[in-house]
Amino acid sequence: MIVAIGSDHAGFALKQELIAELSKHHEIKDFGTDTAEVSCDYPDPALHVARSVARHEAERGILVCGTGIGMAIAANKVPGAYAADCWSDETAKMSRQHNNANILCLGARVLEAGKAVSMAKAWLETPFEGGRHERRTEKIRAFERSASFASVQGQGQVVVFDHPLIQHKLSVIRDVDTPVKTFRELVSELASLMVYEVTRDLPVEMVEVQTPISRTKAYALAGKKLAIVPILRAGLGMTEGVLNLIPNAKVGHIGLYRDPETLKPVEYYCKLPRDIGERDVLILDPMLATGGSSAAAVDLIKRHGGKKISLVCIIAAPEGIEVVHSAHPDVNIYCAALDTCLNEHGYIVPGLGDAGDRIFGTK
């Protein structure tokens, strides 16, 4: 079994004893910390281990701090991570049998080392009973799916970013009197801020770094391949902002326009990276209105081999979200605002008008 393990400075010594014993029968992935001498913020290893388990990169996780409480609180913020702070063999077993916990939290200051090792072994050997407990744990997963989190299980979600900077800049570009130069700059800035949030779960790996003071272990991106695909022409306004953040991302382009009579998308251009099937794809389009263009863009990317696709827009309408998720329920939709509706002309209300015209000053 692959077991991810992490600790803060208070749990370091116990973590090392757990690794020495558990590595006899399991593959251990150590997420730090690497010393008891330097203070470590417990959320850092907790979140790295929790993400590893939630993504199924590790089958189970073990976290150690002074009491186990802080680790459990932090780990349980990650959708798909179910951490239990236990203090005996019995509670460890019950956390598996009844709760299907996939992360065990231990307190180095309240448990003897031998007791903690015994608990970890019992916990790793205990299966989930299922049955009536399956119904109860499913209710937890159902809440996660409805709570605006990007699902780790591949079910597309709608995530609305409420960061103050995002909301402030959005208010400025909604204003009809905002000049073209300011509008264009803010669209690019919004794209950067939003994709910063979208990419917070990119996988990382531990590397060794020489600082001016000493050598230490740190985290670096684990080689995830990304592609951004703006929908012409308005999506171009978001491209530079994303590339400023992720300069090595490959860029594709999809040309679609909306027929003014039918409001249906018409394709006129498609150029994608050859290895699109190996990349996480972010479709960029400031406005998700009727949803026709976005759904058509996802269709095109999937026909070229794309698999993991997300849509990043600034403003979305409920009608557009329904169209995209009806056709592609696996696509995550990220936006800064979910507005009220579409008007009779297919524009988002209150919206900000035609994003393409306002970006390029063509109206």
TrEMBL record:
Keywords: Allosteric enzyme, Glycosyltransferase, GTP-binding, Isomerase, Magnesium, Nucleotide-binding, Transferase. Binds 1 Mg(2+) ion per subunit. The magnesium is bound as Mg-PRPP. Pathway: Pyrimidine metabolism; UMP biosynthesis via salvage pathway; UMP from uracil: step 1/1. InterPro entries: PRTase-like, PRTase_dom, RpiB, RpiB_LacA_LacB, RpiB_LacA_LacB_sf, Upp_B, UPRT. Signal peptide: none annotated. GO terms for biological process: carbohydrate metabolic process; UMP salvage; uracil salvage. Allosterically activated by GTP. This is Uracil phosphoribosyltransferase. The lineage of its organism: Bacteria, Thermotogati, Synergistota, Synergistia, Synergistales. The gene is upp.
